[in-house]
Amino acid sequence: MSLPRKPFCILPLFLTIFANLELIAHPKSAPDYNTLVYKGCAKQSLSDPSGVYSQAISTLYGTLVQQSSKTRFFKTTTGTSQTTITGLFQCRGDLSNVDCYNCVSRLPTLTDKLCGKPVAARIQLLGCYMLYEVAGFAQISGLELLYKTCGGSSAGGTGFQERRDTAFSTLESGVTSGNGFYTTSYESMFVLGQCQGDLGTSDCGSCVKTAVQRAQVECGSSISGQIYLHKCFISYSYYPNGIPKRSSPTSSSSPYTPTSSSSPDTQQNTGKTVAIILGGAAGVGFLVICMLFARSLLKKNDGKSIAHFTLTSKLCVCVCV
To answer: What spans are recorded as compositionally biased (Low complexity) (predicted)?
Structure first.
């Protein structure tokens, strides 16, 4: 007498297929605050035959990384009177302490990799930056342009520059009353600005105003832009189809900068369409598997059906013998 066979169920496979389809339809977007924006490396290399500067820089890095888990801005000086090194870090104002730490902790390695050991270096990521300067390094103006980027697409149409300039005006006033960081939206325009943490209110306002003027002149009707001055930066993005909603106002992702005319809604609909097509194909394949399995059982028992299976409009239940 043959032993009864254990139930066989293909349902977990079916659910796994649809779980993967869900990932296709709604892909998870990783935070992009660790993306490199630019590097600034002094041309003069650090003369350090005894290694005292290297030790001082290493100590500086350790202090800055440690403080990044507690605050979004920190500035300090290390070394002796002959090897004084000043350094600081700053995270974007909407990053959590954890995100700030994760961002800043990457910077020492990036600095060594991208710059080596110059007398001064600055590495800017989307979510944070770090810099150090050896005593005696020539200082530059806080309004010095360090980096700019303007979106390749032109917004065109009427009223774009008016909407952008109104958003900029709100940004200028908001950043001075918002402790050096401010973000807002106005009629499909998203703007963000931040000043260095030790900048006074008046100087912060002047810096952001200068950055705004740079954006107006140098980016023109570009759909997006970023202007980084030595002591502040601004960014803006225009969304013709409306600013996409974020899961949280303190999301660690930086503002989305569109690179094409497609809107987030269009991209989401495309994902749903793909999921429907693949889901239909998976469903048909699943039904075929059930039928072949039942047919195999019937053949193995000389045509005597001792198998039972049930098909519904969506699922095939366990086939038992």
So the answer is: 247-266
Q: Round to whole Å and give the CA distance between 227 and 123.
A: 15
Tokens 């820089």 -> residue: 57
Q: Are 132 and 124 in contact (CB under 8 A)?
A: no
The answer to whether 167 and 185 have CB atoms below 8 angstroms apart is yes
- Residue in the structure block whose two tokens are 């993306």: 35
What whole-number distance in Å separates Cα of residue 260 and Cα of residue 301?
61
Residues near 114 by Cβ (< 8 Å), separated by ≥ 6? 39, 41, 123
Residue 307 CB: number of other CB atoms within 10 A? 17
DSSP-based three-state secondary structure for 37: strand
Per DSSP, the residues of 197-253 read: TT--HHHHHHHHHHHHHHHHHHTTTBSEEEEEESSEEEEEEE-TT-PPP-S-TT-SS
CA distances from 89 to 80, 118, 211, 305 (A): 21, 18, 20, 74
Q: Which domains does the chain have, with CATH numbers?
A: 1-28+263-321 (no CATH), 36-134 (3.30.430.20), 143-252 (3.30.430.20)
Rounded distance between C-alpha atoms, residue 97 and residue 71, angstroms: 7
Report yes or no: 238 and 203 within 8 Å, Cβ to Cβ: no
pLDDT averaged over 10-residue windows placed end to end, the chain, 321 residues:
46 38 39 89 91 93 97 94 91 96 97 95 97 90 95 77 93 90 92 96 96 95 94 93 56 32 36 47 54 56 43 40 39
Residues forming a β-bridge with 316? 311
Q: Which among 108, 136, 110 is positioned nearest to 44, based on CA atoms?
A: 136
Instruction: Give the pTM.
Output: 0.68
The answer to whether residues 289 and 282 touch, using CB atoms and an 8 Å cutoff, is no
Other beta carbons within 10 angstroms of residue 270's beta carbon come to: 12
Q: Are the C-beta atoms of residues 303 and 296 closer than 8 Å to each other?
A: no
